[in-house]
Amino acid sequence: MSDITIKQTLENLEADLRTTLNKALISPLMQHQAQDIDATSPLSSLIEQLSHSHLLDSELFLNFVQLDAAYCQLELGLYGICSDCESTISSQRLIANPIEQRCESCSRKHLTEHRQELRLNH
């Protein structure tokens, strides 16, 4: 994929994530916290706002953080490079998840280690 295609894909994903966030913010459970979150803020500001809400532990927050990382990687010419081992992430993996940060091998290792951490912490 070209950088322009990747950027468009990331922008489309960002629009989808912001739509999901807007829906979450108008839910009755979120209205008391929604006043501190402006879903139209620049991405870095939005991540900062979300980090001070109960959405900090949500998949939505993680997706925004990974999206920000993907934009940075694209700018630096590192998009599609595994954040752990620096090997190339397969194109099939990136098509399935454009904000993927790890190759398949490192992702499996990370999930295994994360599960182990969760068991030790609980």
TrEMBL record:
Zinc finger DksA/TraR C4-type domain sequence ranges: 77-110
Gene3D superfamilies in the cross-refs: DksA, coiled-coil domain (1.20.120.910)
Keywords (A to Z) from UniProt: Metal-binding, Zinc, Zinc-finger
Renumbered zinc finger spans (dksA C4-type): 82-106
Top-rank lineage group of the source organism: Bacteria
Electron transport listed as a keyword: no
Protein name: TraR/DksA family transcriptional regulator
Source organism (scientific name): Shewanella intestini
